[in-house]
Write a structure and sequence with these properties.
The chain has about 240 residues and is α+β, with helices and mostly antiparallel strands. Helix content is about 55%, strand content about 15%. The chain is built from nine helices and four strands; from the N terminus they run ααααααβββααβα. Strands 1, 2, 3 and 4 form a four-stranded antiparallel β-sheet that branches. Strand 2 and strand 3 form a beta hairpin. Helix 3 packs across helix 4, helix 5 packs antiparallel against helix 6 and helix 7 runs antiparallel to helix 8. The longest helix has 23 residues. The radius of gyration is 25 Å and the shape is elongated. It starts with 15 loop residues before the first helix and ends with a helix. About 25% of the residues are buried.
Length: about 240
């Protein structure tokens, strides 16, 4: 690949006089460059990119956040966007705030006389939910054949699989059911604890999904990306 080292995969140009290549060497170098062009048009790195997105958005893994930001940064800067796709500190802050924020929304569903007794159990449940989400084991498996769409956008679909914690009902369904049933405080506390225990179980439920990615070779994009990647994760966790 040395012959193409100073050139983009999308702009391989050889000056035979300056480089003083023989016909045979030039042909070999051109062949290498054509191979690079061919490889750039295939979703060879799309599976790895999808893995970084999943580890960032599902697991909030610090190394994945750093690697994904590095991977996307050249294209983001070239198109006038902020340098980083994800902010690890902001993700961790959101993790800390999540149990309290959901608890604040859930408590008004219950009679005012119960709320002080239910605040801590609901917070514990939501902490277990957050931890269960982040211990999900996700892996991008394979990329579908890349297809060219509108405006020269190259699209591919990544098949992925996640092992999730499986519970008898989702936390949202459980809280709504308890509130509608007008259960006594002790009964609600007991059911919240039971649901919390379920979310503390192992990740064993297999979820299979599709993660779309795209790139624009004619714009010299270097990365496969999904500007709406969080929607894929939100859809998965709607069953959680």
């Amino acid at each position: 690949m040395a012959a193409c080292a100073t050139h983009s995969f999308f702009d391989c140009d050889f000056n035979h006089n300056k480089m003083n290549f023989s016909i045979k060497t030039s042909a070999a170098a051109a062949l290498l460059c054509l191979t690079a062009l061919s490889q750039a048009a295939e979703p060879s790195s799309a599976v790895a990119a999808a893995d970084l997105y999943l580890r960032t958005l599902v697991n909030h893994e610090e190394k994945a956040v750093a690697d994904l930001n590095s991977y996307l940064r050249p294209d983001r800067l070239r198109s006038g966007r902020s340098a980083d796709y994800a902010d690890f500190a902001a993700l961790k802050q959101a993790d800390q705030e999540f149990p309290g924020e959901v608890t604040a929304m859930a408590l008004p569903l219950f009679p005012e006389t119960q709320r002080s007794s239910l605040k801590k159990p609901i917070e514990k449940l939501m902490l277990a939910v957050q931890q269960a989400r982040q211990k999900s084991e996700c892996k991008a498996l394979s990329a579908g054949e890349a297809e060219t769409g509108a405006h020269g956008v190259l699209n591919t679909q990544i098949q992925f699989q996640c092992l999730l914690v499986k519970t008898p009902e989702t936390w949202a369904q459980g809280i709504q059911r308890m509130a509608r049933a007008k259960l006594g405080t002790a009964k609600v506390v007991a059911e919240l604890a039971s649901l919390q225990q379920a979310y503390s179980g192992p990740a064993s439920y297999k979820y299979e999904g599709v993660f779309p990615l795209s790139t624009v070779p004619q714009d010299k994009d270097l990365a496969w990306r999904n500007d709406f990647a969080r929607e894929v994760v939100d859809e998965m966790f709607s069953e959680f």
